[in-house]
């Protein structure tokens, strides 16, 4: 086999959410989201400033351009462009995204837009309890269609819900605007179903109206191993894959949920608000690509799972240490072969292009004000994962559209904590001290710049 060359139109870039980057939580008419009212604690920050990209996007885009990135995945904050979630749209908020997108295009950086990343407009959470309500589902579709219409001539790549399978786990109650209720399995399945219906409607809207736009479903792919070769471990592992991966990808790519999940719902009399007409809505979608985030793998021990647990909840109980893998401080394993496995599996199952849109390693780092942060562990992580992706492409035959690292200019972790950083650029702030928010390239910045200059052909 000769040395394979990466496709010329391959995307390399960075990926973020709005609440983890923008700041400006009350500027230019932005409404509140559920994140904006989360209090600062001893170990976490508030979400008011993030890394202040709202005012520093030119500088951040310059850094991305210097690294030869040609894609930036950003989110359009629902509460910034529609302060009440379902009322009037806010021109001043939209004007920010006009400027941001134009600034990307000026630098030959292709925008990818994600429409929802956990930050429900507060009004919709308070009034309707978030996405458990069909009113909120409809409001999301209305917001999405407005955004697609506005940017269709400039933005070709679209995602709806970040890490869509989290809406089928207990995290759903934190990320869907759910403010009260008994967190029952029915509530979980109901919210999940509404988000899938919303996605299908946005998918159909895009395909009915724009032939050059592409939309994909996006998962936090549940990459998991059985703890042993014991049949119960292997079976539980397969169920996790069925419920948390295949059930969604089957809907995104083929327009229907997994039979096994449908059977589970029927057997357990789960009330998930499946109405007449929903099947038709689901069947109208056709993903142009399948996107996912990947950081680590988990390991499942069936002995630890209560016999009455729903398979989509297994990972709450059975996650074991994997003695074959090293991990970071937060016990997130480092597993490049797992990454190759996800890409190869997805392409082989669904036959549509695959797009890893989040990958990276969190590490505790500080800057002494003068020397470069030396992050060889991050270089090793990205190098091994990019190589694994190339193996999936050139050995396993998968079609991959691009590779986006997560938070490559430092942002707070999803738990509102600057102690866990993913960047190849250091951002000078801590949880409780905004300092000067200076952007300082780490050693991995120069490594990535060299790799991308050559389109990833030499690692
Ligand atoms: C994903 C989310 O779960 O992983 C991001 O899309 C998050 O919002 C990222 O920041 C990394 O997780 P964490 O908890 O380390 O920030």
TrEMBL record:
Keyword annotations of the record = Glycosidase, Hydrolase
Q: Which Pfam families match?
A: Glyco_hydro_1 (PF00232)
Question: Keyword Ribosomal protein on this protein?
Answer: no
Among its keywords, does the record have Hydrolase?
yes
Signal sequence: where? none
Biological process terms from the Gene Ontology for this record are:
carbohydrate catabolic process
PANTHER family (UniProt xref): 6-PHOSPHO-BETA-GLUCOSIDASE ASCB-RELATED, GLYCOSYL HYDROLASE
Q: Provide the family line.
A: Belongs to the glycosyl hydrolase 1 family.
What is this protein's record name? Glycoside hydrolase family 1 protein
Species of origin: Weissella diestrammenae
């Amino acid at each position: 086999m000769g040395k394979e060359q990466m496709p010329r139109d391959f995307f390399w870039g960075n990926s973020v959410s709005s609440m983890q980057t923008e700041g400006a939580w009350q500027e230019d008419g932005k409404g509140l989201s559920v994140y904006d009212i989360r209090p600062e604690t001893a170990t976490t920050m508030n979400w008011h400033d993030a890394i202040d990209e709202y005012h520093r996007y030119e500088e951040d885009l310059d850094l991305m351009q210097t690294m030869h990135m040609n894609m930036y995945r950003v989110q359009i904050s629902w509460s910034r462009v529609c302060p009440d979630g379902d009322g009037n749209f806010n021109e001043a908020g939209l004007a920010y995204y006009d400027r941001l997108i134009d600034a990307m295009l000026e630098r030959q950086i292709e925008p990818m837009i994600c429409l929802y990343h956990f930050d429900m407009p507060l009004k919709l959470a308070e009034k309707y309890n978030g996405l458990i309500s069909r009113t909120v589902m409809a409001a999301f579709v209305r917001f999405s269609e407005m955004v697609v219409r506005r940017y269709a001539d400039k933005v070709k790549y679209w995602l709806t819900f970040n890490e869509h399978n989290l809406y089928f786990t207990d995290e759903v109650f934190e990320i869907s605007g759910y403010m009260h209720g008994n967190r029952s399995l029915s509530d979980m399945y109901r919210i999940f179903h509404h988000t899938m219906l919303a996605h299908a409607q946005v998918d159909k809207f895009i395909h009915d109206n724009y032939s050059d736009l592409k939309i994909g479903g996006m998962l936090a792919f549940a990459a998991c191993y059985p703890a042993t070769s014991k049949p119960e471990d292997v079976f539980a592992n397969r169920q996790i894959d069925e419920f948390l991966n295949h059930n969604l990808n089957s809907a995104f790519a083929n327009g229907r949920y997994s039979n096994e999940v449908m059977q589970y719902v029927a057997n357990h009399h789960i009330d998930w608000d499946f109405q007449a007409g929903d099947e038709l809505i689901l069947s109208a979608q056709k993903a142009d690509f399948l996107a996912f985030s990947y950081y680590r793998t988990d390991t499942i021990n069936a002995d630890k799972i209560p016999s009455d647990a729903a398979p989509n909840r297994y990972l709450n109980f059975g996650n074991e240490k994997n003695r074959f893998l090293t991990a970071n401080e937060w016990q997130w394993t480092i597993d490049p072969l797992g990454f190759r496995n996800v890409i190869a599996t997805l392409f082989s199952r669904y036959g549509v292009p695959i797009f890893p849109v989040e990958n990276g390693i969190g590490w505790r780092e500080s800057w002494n004000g003068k020397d470069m942060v030396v992050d060889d562990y991050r270089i090793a992580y990205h190098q091994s994962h990019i190589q694994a992706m190339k193996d999936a492409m050139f050995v396993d035959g998968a079609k991959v559209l691009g590779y986006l690292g997560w938070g490559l200019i430092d942002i707070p972790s999803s738990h509102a904590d600057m102690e866990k950083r993913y960047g190849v650029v250091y951002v000078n702030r801590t949880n409780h001290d905004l300092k000067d928010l200076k952007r300082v390239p780490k050693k991995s910045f120069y490594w990535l710049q060299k790799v991308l200059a050559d389109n990833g052909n030499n690692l």
